[in-house]
Amino acid sequence: MMIGMSLLPLSCLRVCILRICGIKIGSGCYIGFNVICDTNFPSLIEIGDHVTISHNTSIYSHTATPATSYLSTIYNDCRAVKIGDGAWVGANCTVLPGATVADNCMIGAGSVVSKITTSFALYTGNPCKKIKDLPNHTPHE
What we know:
Elements: H1 2-7, H2 11-21, E1 24-25, E2 30-31, E3 36-37, E4 45-47, E5 52-53, E6 58-59, E7 62-63, H3 70-74, E8 77-78, E9 81-83, E10 88-89, E11 94-95, E12 100-101, E13 106-107, E14 112-113, E15 121-125, E16 128-133
Parallel strand pairs: 1-4, 2-5, 3-6, 4-9, 5-10, 6-11, 9-12, 10-13, 11-14, 13-15
Antiparallel strand pairs: 7-8, 15-16
């Protein structure tokens, strides 16, 4: 799927491919080039309306390996990932199992999201931390 996501020239085509894979995606979304979503458990990924996910971002809903090892007994996790309405996820971000990007929340480029964020806020870093609150209004008001 990665090769296909980098060659599709239009975001609407990338959105269609992700929907075919089983990922829930709302309306009016922009999906950048090379966005990788976990297709092992696609039903655990939900993307709201009017979301922007920039280039080279990865979204994972599980941690597991078929190799038998000590670590595979500890890190065998499947959890839902939600990206709320109006959220922006910057380029080169990683969204991990169990993370929630709240409505109208912005994740700065290169960040790693592993927890639940709050609405109308800017988060950056690895792990991402809240930098500041954003004005609490939407253009539809």
